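Can you please make up a protein's amino acid sequence together with its fold in token form to help me picture the idea?
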Amino acid sequence: MSSTLPRVPDRVALPARSRFAAALRRGLWWGVLSLTGGVERRGRLPRGGCVVVANHSSHADTAALLAALDARHSPAIGAAADYWFASPWRRRICRRLAAGFPVRRSGGGMDDLLSMADELRFGRAVVLFPEGTRGKDGKLGSFHRGALVLAERAGVPVVPVGIAGTDRLLPKHGRLRSALVRVSIGDPLPSTTGPQEARDAVVALHARTVAEPLRDSATRRRVAAVVTSRWGVPLAFCWALAEALSWPLMPELLLGAVCVAVPRAALRVSLGALAGSLAGGLIALQLAAAGVHLPAPLTTDRMRAEARAELALECASAVRHQPWNGIPFKVYGAEAGRAGVPAPDWLTASATARGSRTLTVGLGFAAFGLLMRRHRRQYGRYLVLLGGGFAAGLSLIVASWG
């Protein structure tokens, strides 16, 4: 007589709706963290359900894990019932934005955890912070057994995860600031793993992630050193002033280099460039009114004729066309002086036109720098592309006005 083994039921796939919602949450938090300094992931979750155990030092840990863990596992986050589910609005935020489920910290918490056993068998990742609360000074507390009991009951592995950077991004009782967040996913541990073994794995991952140096470009570091020194803002001011008089390279080229290298310096460098443009434009107007003709490389007679025509019709407000038509600011400044435009009117109109362009460009490059923070080592190549793109664009503009 032949004997047969009991048949293991086929694993039920997670509903497509659940995976889609997880993908939306992942996209949301990846976008948010990209704007606040970037997020990096090392490692992947194993196939099938698993219990993820991670260190916990910030409310941003949840966002980091939702951004880093793949949507096919549809991660669910265990959240303190007495805090995140204490009011209707917190409950809605926790469920919709973090796929949170309540875990009581005083009586009944084990039942809350074990209610997720079927979800694990269906292939879901249940994320828990076994310390039970946010730690201080980057030190991990002792691990409670609940996460490990759940893994053993469901027969799924325990996956240790180390998170670094969230304590700087959003410190406990602190305010939000820019920081790169890194998530390291370790090798799966058996479902029979004990609390100390799981804690040791998370501690090792966290320490390795914190100690790992950021891959960076030597060129970017040199640029950053200049920008953050006392010479950063004066450099932007002098560059923009020179361009408003005669220099052919727009201050936006400088902003494209420095604001990507040091996003946090973007506002003050942009304001320095704006002040230089306004000062240079005012000087150009006064010199032209006095009959002085400064060199104006990479400009054409058509540019000057167009600027004269616009100034004749609109007076100082004609400079509002400058950010969009490709005619250099120095052309408008010189022609405004020859047309007798009053200096106060010119300063007011050019402050609006140049301010909108300079600040928008500077802050736009800063946002790009934050998005690309994890690729800082490519900064040298970025500068080559920036210079090449600028040269090609300038050639096309000059040719179109030839």
